[in-house]
């Protein structure tokens, strides 16, 4: 490691460009990293000159280093020679392809046989998402997060910022990707063309151009990101120490679009990647005084379009979903031609209305040839203030992406630098088309036999690069990325051991590492292990020699982390986001920095000891569980949603504890993603985050989220502070009913009918389970956190599977409001509302493991959960060492379902009670799941609540009930 003199340091924005003076006494930070930590090294430009190198480390850090032109290549060669751990796999590289592969190469036979596909070929084949591909192209074109003047550039995608709902099937929703921003409006384009045609420079130094400002510059980047550090400080430096005029600040997504596409002749800016993965930049969480506009509006959070429901996370999710839509996938190649391709410069750029000032192009600037210091400084200032054109990657028209119908689902992709880290874990890769398990959570197909059987309870599961399932017992965790080894604990001598998963024997023993017993552990990568113990300390270990199964390995303690006051009960470490999350019996979670091994923040308190934690490796959402409570937190510690997952008011549910949790990850923009939790009662429950409309006059009403073994209900009210998970649930139900009946604003509610519009459910009852809506409300609708004041009406958002609770009353006391577009009923006035994020129950898995089912001969607690890489299945590990694989069922055609009674447990027909003989065929009713003989199950019907759209076999009672329901719905539609 060598230390460079401060005179050789330059900031990201040179002083001569920003107008500041160099402080020679200013202290400098020195970054030091080992050669073995260098993952990639790429040549870069700085000030349009080929003088820089960008170094990427395995822990996610990267450094942009600028050198004199003559020695840059020598240092680059030296780094490649000394760094022994360079990544060469294309799917793991930040550029998306192997080094030396031509991004524009054809699909030659030799390249295909050798597997050396370019990142473009991978995108065309549908192996990577649009977001990933744009990030890879930015990297290949020299764009870097370390240089504000060369920040990654992303396109404006949408033109609709007024609708209540975003229609991604309507082409008018999108911007014209075949035209640059300056050509989006014909009237404004004509003014640009007039300047181009009439341009006359007497000196002849500046050729004609259309746009004198760029689509990406240091000022554009920091103006977008001004609400988050360190961009706030960079903005202030560029602005002379103060914020810009409020009317010129970025304050509204719609206004920014109108300015860049239509209204402002000096604004043709595109977007930055954060618009597709980072909601924080839209929020003024630091409460900066950004000023007041001339209209009197005080700037704070960015104003979002109506379809974002006032939520920055929802805006980012929908924006990302739009980026991955069919329309954008079919037209993105046209935008790539403008920014990185053949329409970037020359006559093709003129024809495409895409010609910028000549100093934006790297071929037109050579500082070594400029002798005049004033001219040189002016050129540097121009480049930094107005931007740089990316390096040209394509000389020919860019190919079109194949139809999404043949490539979906897209591979898992995440934001910026974390994308490659996910690929390292094997999430990325080709998958077959078809439904994903979280799309059909209500119809997952139960297995007949366990996929694997271990000697003890399942503790951890993983899939290797080949897709093979690996599983180890409790008190063991597999070491990625190859999972050849595992970390084990729980021995009488308090030791922790490294073992070989191939031979199931210890290869390293570290004795007495703790003051207490190790309770939990996590291995985020091949070199790091994190343990928690009864002494409340989190220990971080370095696994030395774990890269190879044949190399001797041992453990070295890196640091002890102190923060908990009681035993650490669960732990999760994420390499993608560089954090450790530890849960404790002290009812708190602590988030630690995995790289710096320091405290970040505390989450909680919870209702009881924390029993399970996890991190969504795609979005950074943190999940923590306490008793039956499930909490979701944003990466910066904001509570997003929570729910009590207990089934009902049954006394047995008070002993239920969540002990396993996992997320679905594929296509993180999907609105149907689930959080799966496994309990000690042998049940897996699936939950989805949805937005519901909550009326402001019901702001004090509590949340109800309930379900039963026979039917799924999800009645959501506005949130109320969490109750203890061990409270008397029967007392809770009584309180709920009293709250409704005694509420002054709901006079007569007890005499009015409260109806339920049921969403999809994963299990269905026989005729004995049918109850009227009033009884259903009393018995099940109040089994969670209860309402305490004011009646509520919750209207489901688009595509939301949710109960619609409506009060049918002859009188209405609600006042008119200028906000909110929904009416309570015909003739009723409008009411103010807001959107609220809630966890919605999607289904549960009970076969083989649930103690509540009498037809399960050997029930067991659910101890481990994991989605398959392709997300076509969900793996469930239980306390008897069995691994069950729940797959995407063919519910439209046939197949088993969770609510079906298992054959060996029944010997009689459920209707006529005739005993089955060896030759009798047993038939399951597709609706109630009971067993019937051929005569009693000869009826057929559609089952709409199970999404079965063609007639299937049902029993007589279910047939009559389904027919009555269909007739009732038909009459309602007719009326």
From TrEMBL:
It comes from the Eukaryota. This is WD repeat and FYVE domain-containing protein 3. GO terms for molecular function: zinc ion binding. Transmembrane segments: none annotated. WD repeats lie at residues 561-602. The keyword Repeat applies. Keywords: Metal-binding, Repeat, WD repeat, Zinc, Zinc-finger. Residues 811-820 have a biased composition (Polar residues). Residues 903-963 form the FYVE-type domain. Residues 1-80 form the BEACH-type PH domain. Residues 801-810 have a biased composition (Basic and acidic residues). Pfam families: Beach, FYVE, PH_BEACH, WD40. PANTHER family: BLUE CHEESE. The keyword Zinc applies. InterPro entries: BEACH_dom, BEACH_dom_sf, BEACH_domain_protein, PH-BEACH_dom, PH-like_dom_sf, WD40/YVTN_repeat-like_dom_sf, WD40_repeat_CS, WD40_repeat_dom_sf. Residues 108-401 form the BEACH domain. Residues 797-827 are annotated as: Disordered.
């Amino acid at each position: 490691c060598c230390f460079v003199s401060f005179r050789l340091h330059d900031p990201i924005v040179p002083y001569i460009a920003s107008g500041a003076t160099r402080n020679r006494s200013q202290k400098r930070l020195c970054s030091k990293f080992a050669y073995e930590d260098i993952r990639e090294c790429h040549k870069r430009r700085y000030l349009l000159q080929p003088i820089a190198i960008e170094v990427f480390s395995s822990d996610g850090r990267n450094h942009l280093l600028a050198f004199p032109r003559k020695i840059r290549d020598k240092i680059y060669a030296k780094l490649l020679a000394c760094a022994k751990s360079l990544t060469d796999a294309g799917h793991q590289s930040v550029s998306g392809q192997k080094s030396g592969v031509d991004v524009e190469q054809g699909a030659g036979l030799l390249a295909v046989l050798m597997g050396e596909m370019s990142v473009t070929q991978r995108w065309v084949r549908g192996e990577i998402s649009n977001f990933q591909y744009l990030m890879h192209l930015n990297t290949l074109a020299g764009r870097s997060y370390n240089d504000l003047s060369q920040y990654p550039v992303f396109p404006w995608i949408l033109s609709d910022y007024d609708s209540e709902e975003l229609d991604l099937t309507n082409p008018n929703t999108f911007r014209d990707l075949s035209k640059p921003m300056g050509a989006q409006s014909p009237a404004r384009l004509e003014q640009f063309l007039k300047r181009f045609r009439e341009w006359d420079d007497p000196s002849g130094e500046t050729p004609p151009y259309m746009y004198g400002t760029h689509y990406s510059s240091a000022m554009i980047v920091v103006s977008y990101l001004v609400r988050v550090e360190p961009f706030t400080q960079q903005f202030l430096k560029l602005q002379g120490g103060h914020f810009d005029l409020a009317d010129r600040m970025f304050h509204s997504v719609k206004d920014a679009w109108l300015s860049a596409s239509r209204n402002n002749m000096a604004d043709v800016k595109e977007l930055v990647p954060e618009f597709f993965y980072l909601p924080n930049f839209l929020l003024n969480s630091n409460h900066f005084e950004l000023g007041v506009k001339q209209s009197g509006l005080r700037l704070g959070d960015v104003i979002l379009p109506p379809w974002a429901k006032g939520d920055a996370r929802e805006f980012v999710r929908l924006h990302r979903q739009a980026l991955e839509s069919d329309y954008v996938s079919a037209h993105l190649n046209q935008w790539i031609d403008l920014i990185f391709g053949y329409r970037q410069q020359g006559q093709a750029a003129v024809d495409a209305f895409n010609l910028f000032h000549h100093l934006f192009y790297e071929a037109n600037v050579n500082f070594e040839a400029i002798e005049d210091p004033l001219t040189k400084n002016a050129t540097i200032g121009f480049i930094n203030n107005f931007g740089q054109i990316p390096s040209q990657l394509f000389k020919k028209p860019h190919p079109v992406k194949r139809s999404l119908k043949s490539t979906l689902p897209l591979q898992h992709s995440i934001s910026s630098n974390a994308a490659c880290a996910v690929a390292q874990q094997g999430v990325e890769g080709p998958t077959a088309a078809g439904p994903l398990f979280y799309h059909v959570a209500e119809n997952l197909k139960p297995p007949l036999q366990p996929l694997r059987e271990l000697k003890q309870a399942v503790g951890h599961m993983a899939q290797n690069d080949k897709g093979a399932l690996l599983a180890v017992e409790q008190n063991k965790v597999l070491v990625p990325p190859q999972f050849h080894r595992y970390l084990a604990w729980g021995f009488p001598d308090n030791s922790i051991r490294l073992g070989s998963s191939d031979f199931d024997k210890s290869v390293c023993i570290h004795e007495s590492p703790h003051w207490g017993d190790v309770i939990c552990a996590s291995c985020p990568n091949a070199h790091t292990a994190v343990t928690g113990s009864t002494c409340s300390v989190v220990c971080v270990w370095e696994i030395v020699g774990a890269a190879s199964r044949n190399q001797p390995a041992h453990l070295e303690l890196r640091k002890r982390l102190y923060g908990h006051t009681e035993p650490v009960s669960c732990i999760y470490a994420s390499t993608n986001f560089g954090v450790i999350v530890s849960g404790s019996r002290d009812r708190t979670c602590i988030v630690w920095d995995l790289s710096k091994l320091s405290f970040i923040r505390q989450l909680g308190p919870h209702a009881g000891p924390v029993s399970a934690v996890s991190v969504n490796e795609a979005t950074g959402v943190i999940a923590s569980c306490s008793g039956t409570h499930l909490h979701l937190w944003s990466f910066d510690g904001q509570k997003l949603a929570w729910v009590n997952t207990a089934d009902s008011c049954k006394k047995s549910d008070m002993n239920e504890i969540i002990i396993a949790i996992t997320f679905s990850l594929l296509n993180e923009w999907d609105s149907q993603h689930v959080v799966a939790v496994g309990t000690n009662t042998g049940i897996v429950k699936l939950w989805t985050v949805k937005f519901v409309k909550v009326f402001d006059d019901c702001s004090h009403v509590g949340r109800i989220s309930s379900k039963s073994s026979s039917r799924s209900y999800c009645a959501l009210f506005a949130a109320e502070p969490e109750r203890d998970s061990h409270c008397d649930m029967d007392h809770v139900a009584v309180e709920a009913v009293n709250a409704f009946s005694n509420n002054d604003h709901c006079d007569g509610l007890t005499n009015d009918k409260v109806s339920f519009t049921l969403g999809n459910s994963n299990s269905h009852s026989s005729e004995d389970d049918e109850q009227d809506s009033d009884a259903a409300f009393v018995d099940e609708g109040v089994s969670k956190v209860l309402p305490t004041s004011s009646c509520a009406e919750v209207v489901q958002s688009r595509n939301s599977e949710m109960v619609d609770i409506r009060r049918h009353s002859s009188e209405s006391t609600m006042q008119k409001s200028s906000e909110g577009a929904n009416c309570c009923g015909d003739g009723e006035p409008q009411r103010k509302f807001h959107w609220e994020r809630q966890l919605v129950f999607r289904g549960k898995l009970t076969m083989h493991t649930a103690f509540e089912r009498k037809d399960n001969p050997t029930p067991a607690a659910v101890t481990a959960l994991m989605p398959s890489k392709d997300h076509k299945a969900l793996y469930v590990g239980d306390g008897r060492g069995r691994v069950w694989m729940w797959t995407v069922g063919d519910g439209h055609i046939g197949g088993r379902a969770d609510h079906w009674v298992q054959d060996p447990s029944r010997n009689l027909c459920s209707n006529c009670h005739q005993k089955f003989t060896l030759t009798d065929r047993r038939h399951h009713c597709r609706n109630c799941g009971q067993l019937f003989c051929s005569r009693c199950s000869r009826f057929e019907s559609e089952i709409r609540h199970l999404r079965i759209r063609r007639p299937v076999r049902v029993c007589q009672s279910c047939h009559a009930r389904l027919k009555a329901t269909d007739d009732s719905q038909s009459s309602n539609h007719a009326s």
